[in-house]
Amino acid sequence: MFGSVSNCHNVKDFRNLAKKRLPSPIFHYIDGAADDEITYKRNTDAYEQCDLIPNVLSGVDKVDMSTTVMGQKLDMPLYCAPTALQRLFHHEGEIGVAKAAEKFGTMFGISSLGTASIEEISNLVKTPKLFQLYVHKDKGLNKALIERCKESNFEAMAVTVDTAVGGNRERDLYTGFTIPMKLKLNSVLSFMLHPKWAVDYFTKPKWELSNLKDHISEGTTVMTTIGDYFTKMLDNSMSWKDVENINKEWGRQFAIKGVMSVDDAKKAVDVGASAIMVSNHGGRQLDGSRSPFDQLAEIVDAVGDKIDVICEGGIRRGTHVLKALSLGAKACSGGRMYLYALAAGGQKGVEKSLSNLRNEIERDMKLMGVSNVKELTRKNLKFR
Predict the structure, then answer these.
(1) Over the stretch 124-150, which tens digit does the pLDDT of each residue have?
(2) Between helices 292-303 and 38-45, what is the axis angle to 10°?
(3) According to CATH, what is the number of the domain 5-383?
(4) Do the Cβ atoms of 323 and 313 come closer than 8 Å?
(5) Which of helix, strand or coil describes residue 177?
(6) pLDDT digits 0-9 by tens, 53-75
(7) From the candidates 90, 91, 136, 281, which is the catalytic residue?
(8) Are 354 and 75 in contact (CB under 8 A)?
(9) Which member of 47, 96, 215, 234 lies 3.0 to 4.6 Å from 347 by CB, making a disulfide possible if both were Cys?
(10) pTM score, two decimals?
């Protein structure tokens, strides 16, 4: 039914098309999470436990959905969160996503484990750019990444703090997913049934972790799983003092990604962060944890007047964004919402997904009777 991106009207449609176009191990890498995937499901389900209360006859003709987060003006209150390995999903990878984000006037995040370089992205787009720093045991690597981002005029940096060890991503264990890809007997047939993906993978520019390859071989020439990479390569001893020092070294807009408690939100303020991303890594780390949306209100109440609070995780609809903004989030971000679309159709797919979500936000704001996202408050919500 969903043979092209033009027939994809929501994130679920893009997921279905991505499943058809990707070899099984790669689809399940995007789609999977930790353990029993309870938190992964909860991230979206949490929004459905809250209802919107509209106001009518408000004279809403045009709406302003712009917001400012980490000092960056965004044309819509939703941006593309940094995610790893994008060229595995489609040969355009981060380059396609960055171009799509720029078209919609929103921020693009690139991961340390990205498959396009910091410099490529900087030269490609003028839209606000966020670099996600995974803090490695190799201190020279961390310093080099920070310096490259400075030289490339990235506006913001986020340190991910929820990866003390790799999560138990059992789907990857079943499918044998690794980086670089290794064909195994139980997945050969799936790769054979997706020849277009294989042709693109083997004929386009060589697979590599562009920002890491000059420092470490894992993930580019030495095979590893994502879980093993996090456990073996990242600095598992990282402390709040380390984060504070990174912030001072960076000296620009700085976010902490992976905050889920009020106490940690307060510590983020103490170390001088510009923003926190309330996130559980898409349910891919600690299964059984709360959803970002469920934690949002108490975190906003504690620190929302001191720091930008971003809600990240489980967003599939424009109404989800409006609910998070109503609780006090300055913006929302997500990964799977555009990764399915990237896999389904490259840059065009991401553009269609962002267009769908932007149209939903605009339409739903009008139905809510608000002309500006700043008008959204908790009076617009009723929890069940």
Answers:
(1) 999 999 999 999 999 999 999 999 999
(2) 60
(3) 3.20.20.70
(4) no
(5) coil
(6) 999 888 888 999 999 999 999 99
(7) 281
(8) no
(9) 96
(10) 0.96
